[in-house]
Here is the input.
Amino acid sequence: MAKIQTPQPVRGTQDIFGEDQERFSHVVETFERVRRLFGFKGVEMPVFEPTAVFARSLGETTDVVSKEMYSFEDRGGDSLTLRPEFTAGICRAFLSNGWQQHVPLKLSAHGPLFRYERPQKGRYRQFHQLDAEIIGAGEAAADVELLCFADQLLKELGIDDGVTLQLNTLGDAESRDAWRDALVEHFQAHRTELSEDSQDRLERNPLRILDSKERQDRPIADAAPDIDAYLSTEAKEFFAQVTEGIDACGVAWTRNSRLVRGLDYYRHTAFEFVTDRLGAQGTVLAGGRYDGLMESLGGPHTPAVGWAAGIERLGMLLDEPEKCGPDAIFVPLGDGCEAAAMKLMGELRRSGISCEMAYKGNMKKRMQKANAAGASYVVIIGENELANSVAAVKNLVTGDQREIVLSGLVEALTA
Ligand code: ATP
Ligand code: MG
Here is the structure.
C-alpha cells in the first residue's frame, strides 16, 4: 500500500499550544475583564461575510481588499470573504439588526481573522485580534475612553513598558482633502523616485504612501507636508479635546504626524501603540475614528471610533507565564479506589479546587507525574485508606504527608 502523506498545516496558520496558548488565554481573559470595567458589551460575530461588506467599507484600493482577502464562491454562488478585520462586520451587524436604538453602543469582540500576507514572526494568515468599538458617538470623549481602555489593558498585561502611544489626527473631510492635494503635489514632484506600489498609490490614495514600508519611499514620505497646516478650526479643536482628555487620564502619548491608518474610512483620531521589541511587526494595537464607514455600507451617518490589537503580538510581549499546576493530583491504588477518587474529585472541583488523576503506571511513575505537573498536593487513596474513609495527602511543597479524613479534604487542601 502506498504510504499516506501526513497533512501539512495551511501556510501562515498556527497550532497554539503550551506556553503560547497560556499567553493567548491570558491576553483574552485580561481583555474580557478590562472591557467590563469600561462597560463594553461583548458581541459574537460571523467569521465570514458577503465580500461586499469588506470591499465597500475598506475601499477597493486598500492592501487588504486588493491583495489580502480570502474570498470564495460558496455552493450557492455567493461571493463570501473570511473576515480580515472586525470593524466592517460589526457595522454590518449594527445596520442589519437596527442597533441604532442602543447608541452610543460600546462593543468588544475577539477571534480569528484571515489575511493572505507573507507569513513571518508576528504576521500570520490566520491571526487573532481583540477589538473595541464605540458606535454612534461623534464626541471626543469616546476617543478618550477608548484610548484609556487600551492604555489600561496594556498596563494590566504588564507590557506598557517600551510601548508608545503614537497619536495623529487626519482631520475632518475638508482638512483631509486639502492635505491630500498637498501630498499629491509633493509626491508628483518625486514620482520617479517612488516604488512601483507607491506610484500606484499616488493615483488611488496618496495618503497611504506615508504608510509605505518600502525603504526607497521613506525619505520622500518623511519629507511630505504635515496635516497641521491644513486642519480646519473644528478639526484642531477636536484633536485638542482628545489630547486634553487623555492627558487628564495620565495616558502617555507622542505625536506622530506621519501616522495614517491603512484603511480608507478613518477621520480625525488615528493611533498606534508601538513597541520596539517585535522588529518590523511593532504595532500591537491600532485604531481611530471612522465616521465615514457606515455610509459606505448604505447606512445613515453614524460616527464611530475603535481599535484592534493582535493577540499573538501582545502574547509575545508578556513575561514568561507562571507555571500553574492543578491544586491536587489523585493517585488511586487498588480495587474500587478509582471510582472513589472520581467521586471525591467531583466534590473538590465543585468547591473550586482543581484536580486531576494519575491513572497510569506504577506508584513511582504517578508521583513523578504529580511533581512534573506542578501540583500542590498528591492525594493517595489505597484500599486501606478507603476502608477507613481517609486519604494520604502529601504536600509537594513541604514534603509533609498526613492522613486526612475524606470529609475534611476540601478544608485540608484549601488551608
Ligand atoms: P500592519 O501595518 O502590521 O500590517 P495593519 O495596519 O494591517 O498592520 P490592523 O489592520 O490595524 O493592522 O490590525 C491591528 C493589529 O492587528 C495590528 O496592529 C497587529 O497587532 C495585528 N495584526 C494585523 N495583521 C496581522 C497579521 N497578519 N498577523 C498577526 N497580527 C496582525
Ligand atoms: Mg497589514
Remarks:
- The mean pLDDT is 93.
- The chain has two domains: 19-172+232-317, 328-414.
- Residues 18-37 form the longest helix (20 residues).
- Residues 85, 115, 117, 122-124, 127, 129, 262, 281, 283-284, 286, 308-310, 312-313 surround adenosine-5'-triphosphate (ligand 1) (CB under 6 Å).
